[in-house]
Amino acid sequence: MKRVEVKPELIRWAVERSRLSPDTFARALPKFKQWESGEAQPTLHQLEKLARKTWTPIGYFFLSEPPDESLPIPDFRTVTDTLIERPSPNLIDTLYMMQRRQSWMREYLVEMGHEPLAFVGSARKTDDVLGVAGKIRHTLGMDEGWASQIRTWTDALSALREAAEKVGVLMVINGVVGNNTRRKLDPEEFRGFVLSDYYAPLVFINGADARSAQMFTFAHELSHLWLDKGGLFNLPDLQPSNDRIEQFCNKVTAEFLVPARELVQFWPRVERDAEPFQAMARQFKVSPIVAARRALDLGLINLTGFRVFFHDYQSNERRKAARRKSGGDFYNNQNVRVGKRFARAVIHAAKEGRLSYRDAYSLTGLHGTTFDKYAKVLGERV
Question: Strand 231-233 vs strand 192-195: parallel, antiparallel, or unpaired?
Fold first, then answer.
């Protein structure tokens, strides 16, 4: 049986890149340890299996040395002010998938005669924070008092997402790569990213992250769009890096979600409550940890108090999530994994012959009857 010559360092690199235990491969591929040490070589079939298991393009195994996979967008992530490890294949594949969607959507909108979005890049990091937050709120139709019409903060998160889509932002919330539930995205690696564009700006939120944190990530990413500054974020403890753009966006985010003037007036009514942040959450329709984060911004609590509450709340949230049944309705999930606006554009283009169904399937990750059924769920005919 013909063997394929592969350098051991490329096999070790692929395994490290996958972030899976080497024992995982040793069980599935009995000769794996020998390939890793260079004592033996795999067959092409075995190499293809290893490529699938490590989510590595098979061509990489024929390089002279491991490639340097740099991120295609600015990296605003920090871990104690140092650069973090190489991006996972799940992150890389998600980024490229979203870039393909954005590129297609941009061409589609230009072809259809749409004008560029005026709000993208309309702010500067030297602008007044209150003014920028007010402009974002106004653009989304979330002017002062909007929160009083929303029942809960989780409803508010959905309302904000729908408002962003309505004004032209491609919104994606997903906790896995495409629809592959075996490839979970790690919120410790990233909370979200922004692909800025004047026609098809895209905001991606890691759906594996706690919902309470997603609201802050979402608003933070909108702030980046107003600056026309795309990037990748992890926001540990909802804190930005020391970058000036990040500092500005964080201030805008805080003001957008919980206006300082309103909170200063409200705080004396709840500061002695047993659960003051839950009371703030009900008032401002933000999650309790976002409420606590804003109280920290304004010096109403100290950093230690915030971190204790933040970690306790998220731990409790994870426990509740673990007890809930996972999954949900597949087609409803596509409303956030693909996005209604993007899906409708793809369906229309395919129906009108401007896009092949093969490309439509590739862009949405939905194939054949699944694509057709989702189109019907959206009220579209194919």
Answer: antiparallel
